[in-house]
Amino acid sequence: MRAAVYTRISSDPKLEGLGVARQAEDCDALAERNGWPIVARYDDNDLSAFTGRTRPGFESMLTAMAAGEFDALVCWHTDRLYRSMKDLERLIDIADSRGVQIRTVQGGDLDLSNSSGRMLARILGSVARAESEHKGERHRRANEQAAAAGKWSTANRPFGYTRTGEPLEPEASMVRAAACDVLAGKSVRQVAREWRETGLTGTRGAAFSSQNVRALLVNPRYAALRVHRGKIVGPGTWEPLIDETTHRGLVAYLGDPARVICTSFEKKYIGSGVYLCGRCGGVMRHAVSGNPTVRRYECKDHQHVVARGEPVDAYVETLVLGRLARTNIHVMLDAGEKVDVDGLHSQRAAVQARLDELAALFAEGVIDGSQLRRGTAELRSQMAELDATLAEVSRRSPVADLLAAGDAVAERWETLSADLKSKIIQELMTVTILPAPRGSKGFNPERVRVEWR
């Protein structure tokens, strides 16, 4: 009688295959005692039979069984073969129709050719499923307890930390610097490019992209906030890389649809989308004339106004540096209204508690769906306002960052990307390019109207 061997183990993170190898040895011995030659082997390593995921080895085994490629199936135990009643019924249909005998090392024989045997198989399947469900309940309860205690937990080592939750250099410093830089106006794309230039990769070996850097920066883990089932449940016990205010600010800043372009993409020229058309008030865009070495700015929507790019940019940069050198801008930057950050966090926590309370009342049947939607919409609107305020509190002024260079402001300006220069210009002034008078040639500074903020 031709025999096939099926082996499976639910968890083998290192994929060493030792568990299925032990099962195979015991199955081989059973086949040998019965005098059955083994003609096929099927295995599913590191794959549960309970979750519903497709098991390639099991599927191949059923296909071969239906084709009559073997007469007996040997496995270590019935719970290695199936834990789902759906899988069992498929097995019964095929094994019964093909007359396949099923032998197990530890669970006895399965005779699926009669009602008593099928009943026993179903009972064993129900017991195995109950064991899996009970195990899942224990694990969920343990995870909830660990989350409530703020314990570190992760399946894979996150960037910036060791596997056990200690900050890991230089990754930790890169995260801290990126959080500050993005709130100071640096684009996420530029951060990703700078990280790639270091030669480091993500913990799974992938090169950094703006998408995964963005996801990393808004991850609550870096503010030592414990997440369970996608929800922040409280503070963690590990060392944060950024404070909670910075985290909330990043989430609001990077999540604002109005800022998606400025946080994700970089301007290559300082006036793109910044300079305004002197005729219609629309923004100017960068363009290239017939001569690719000559660049220009033009009215984006109507081409009302056109101006050479290099002299306009040089003039605007001169005005910026002059303004920073001879005004009391330090005092102006420090004169803003002071914000009670702790109070904002308390208000946000109160709104979140009310959202949770609404969900609980709906689950209990105290309120209906329309009441839940109305109350949720109002509270989420309040939450959005609080997050926007936190974002502004956390955002660092690119002008203030530049002034931190002291007497070396001009040298620092030269090292900035066009994207950051553009943000500084937007913070300091409104630049409007006026139409050129008839017959004029060359650059005329009078065409550049500046209104200081």
From TrEMBL:
<dbReference type="GO" id="GO:0000150">
    <property type="term" value="F:DNA strand exchange activity"/>
</dbReference>
<dbReference type="GO" id="GO:0003677">
    <property type="term" value="F:DNA binding"/>
</dbReference>
<dbReference type="InterPro" id="IPR011109">
    <property type="entry name" value="DNA_bind_recombinase_dom"/>
</dbReference>
<feature type="domain" description="Recombinase">
    <location>
        <begin position="151"/>
        <end position="260"/>
    </location>
</feature>
<dbReference type="Pfam" id="PF00239">
    <property type="entry name" value="Resolvase"/>
</dbReference>
<dbReference type="InterPro" id="IPR006119">
    <property type="entry name" value="Resolv_N"/>
</dbReference>
<dbReference type="InterPro" id="IPR038109">
    <property type="entry name" value="DNA_bind_recomb_sf"/>
</dbReference>
<feature type="domain" description="Resolvase/invertase-type recombinase catalytic">
    <location>
        <begin position="2"/>
        <end position="150"/>
    </location>
</feature>
<feature type="region of interest" description="Disordered">
    <location>
        <begin position="131"/>
        <end position="150"/>
    </location>
</feature>
<dbReference type="InterPro" id="IPR050639">
    <property type="entry name" value="SSR_resolvase"/>
</dbReference>
<dbReference type="Pfam" id="PF07508">
    <property type="entry name" value="Recombinase"/>
</dbReference>
<dbReference type="InterPro" id="IPR036162">
    <property type="entry name" value="Resolvase-like_N_sf"/>
</dbReference>
<protein>
    <submittedName>
        <fullName>Serine recombinase</fullName>
    </submittedName>
</protein>
